[in-house]
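cron nightly-structures :: item 1 of 1
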Amino acid sequence: MESSDAVPWWRDSARRNRAVLVAFASLALAGILFPAFTNYLFAGDRRVLVVSLEENAGQERREGLKRACGTLPGISVVADKGNPDPRIQGRFPVRFDIADTTTQQEAALLKCLNDNRERFQVRGYLPENDGD
């Protein structure tokens, strides 16, 4: 007769069950962590500059700001989402895509916003998705 120490682990049901459970837990953890790390590490630049306007600015000023500053090199306007009614869209901020822009291109956008602050009733601006 063989002692329990001499039995290979795959023939002992308790050890086999433990090994399967550990393998499953390891695969489950790796399946959760791998996409999380790769999505964060390889996401790239997704920065957006959010420009808020005064409360009564309206859709006309939003569109004017998009035309004035959204055509600068390296800068693009993020499309509006939701209800396209001008009365509703006029309440929301304007978003400029500044992903993969140079420092000079961002400076040109900020200069455009500051030069047109009174004309389009710009209240302020903040970057989104900048990683800070």
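cron nightly-structures :: done
The beta strands are 48-53, 76-77, 94-97, 122-128.
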